[in-house]
Design a protein that fits this description.
The chain is of the alpha/beta class and 400 residues long. It has two domains: 206 residues, 3-Layer(aba) Sandwich (Rossmann fold); 183 residues, Glycogen Phosphorylase B (Rossmann fold, 3-Layer(aba) Sandwich), CATH 3.40.50. It is 36% helix and 18% strand. The protein has an eight-stranded mixed sheet, with helices on both faces. Strands 11-10-9-12-14-16 form a six-stranded parallel sheet, with helices on both faces. A two-stranded parallel ribbon has the order 13-15. Helix 8 links the parallel strand 10 and strand 11. Helix 2 runs parallel beside helix 3, helix 7 crosses helix 11 and helix 10 crosses helix 12. The radius of gyration is 22 Å and the shape is globular. The protein starts with 6 loop residues before the first strand and ends in a 6-residue tail after the last helix.
Amino acid sequence: MASRRLRIALVLNRFWPEVGGAETNLYFQAVELAKQYDVTVFTPKRLADEADRETHAGFVVHRLADALNRGKRYPNLAARTFMPALLPHLLRGRFDVVQAFPSINHNSLLAFAATRLLRTPMIFCSFDFLDYAELIRAGGGRMDVNVIASYVPSRREAYVLRHVEHVFAISQRELAFFRRFNPNASYSPVPVLVDEYLEPLPSPRGRYGIAPDEFVFLCLGRVSEIKGQDLALEAFIRVQREWPGSRLVIVGRSDYEEGFVAAMRRRIEEAQLGDRVVFTGMVDRPDVIAWLAHADAHVIPVRFMNSGAVVAETWAAGTVVIQSDAVDPNYVIDGANGYLFPSESVDALAERMLTACRHRAVLPAMAERGRRFVLENLTYQRLVEIYSEVYQRLVPRAFE
């Protein structure tokens, strides 16, 4: 058992009670780490009525003023923030390890400066080192999925990457990039809170007029070019010709790229699909899990994705995936625990969707193979084990 003498500072740009993939991940990371270590979270103040300091689920949260929010507008939804008070907090805090997420930004740079002054080890945890969604938009919907390989970091970025004591990456592409600068770089999986998927939830199908025997293809995520729902739609149009008893349900906010969504709706009208395609808009977390559990197959047609977390969530819910090979890392073994297709190949995607329809009876067994993989490799407990191996190397005295 690790000693509680190990004091960890987590420097985050977003955190609970904000709800999103990264926020949910980081919240449960803090909860799990706090079971073994003394954990303090530093994050920008996002809501006017948030307490500056609170203890929650065994860890302390400091919500610091964002100097870039000059008008003190709340909720503060800005992507870029800067917490000057972070520096004195870290200098006074006697932390053994400082861990910064999810990219090199103003706050992680400030944390880096503090650790150099204190000679304290720092761990940089990257979720997306580049703004891939913006790169796809700038490229008119196209981007080399391995764009990180040719990226030339600024001198400041390169300096930080070379001098932090450890770097974690959630994709193999980014891991290869980081190892050009730092030999102490390794993979960290994006985990799943398996308990979320154990409680049976009522099917949401009836609310949308979908019968229990209809084959439901789910697409989960904000409707945007990088997520590739337009590719799923084109494939579904072809599937409908042979398998008319099927539906495409697109779950997620649809106000992110309004022109993209409008083009999809025009295509649905042209194809005379009527109510065969359903847009739910943004739904609460229980409905997300219910759709994952009650769909027949989850189509993940992304043009780019780091982490594959949604694949793990789908398996945890007991549903098979039909996944683009642009997902990194790739956990899918084609025909064993899911189906793979070449990114942006509508023909291949339609063929995999029809295969799923024809072999509906075997899909639960395929999903169960995926679920076993999740339980063995993609839990928060496993992630903390991976972190702990690095903590023991960086701060061995805390484990004596």
